[in-house]
Amino acid sequence: MTRSLPILAALTLSLLLGGCGNRSIGNKIDDQFLGPDVSSSIARADKNLTDPTSHITVTSYNGVILLAGQTPRGELKAKAEQAARTVQGVKKVHNELQVLQPTTALARSNDALMTTKIKTQMLANSTVPSTRIKVVTENGIVYLLGLVTQQEAANAASVVQGVSGVQKIVKLFQYTN
């Protein structure tokens, strides 16, 4: 009986946390595996997509894939997108790769700091469903993914606009209304 108590507690916690947001626990688990599967597919597509001349970030939310970062040539950008589309479970691919040299470590640190600021501001704002929004910042561009209403999307974008250093906001939301 004492061994089953921690299992029961973990199951209860999972169900309670799974109730937060519009996605099922299965969707959340699928997304955790989908991102790495897409990254592996991209790595197999062309060695230049994983060498130091490319920096690719793969994000998954509800089966929607965001490819962000930089790659030096347009054909590599296209190969990355095609590789992402071939992965089972991918519903849609947003290829936001820039044909540029990769950003520096300092720029990536600034992007991480900006993402943290944005998430903190969203948590503090009661009109933004922060648990249903994924924020990705790459080279000063903020990408927003999630399952939200159009009003919630507008509220989230408004919060992002107030953070210094944001170059551009790209809304990749799935709307529930």
From TrEMBL:
Keywords: Signal. The keyword Signal applies. SMART domains: BON (SM00749). PROSITE patterns: BON, PROKAR_LIPOPROTEIN. This is BON domain-containing protein. Residues 30-101, 110-177 form the BON domain. The keyword Signal applies. Pfam families: BON. It comes from the Bacteria.
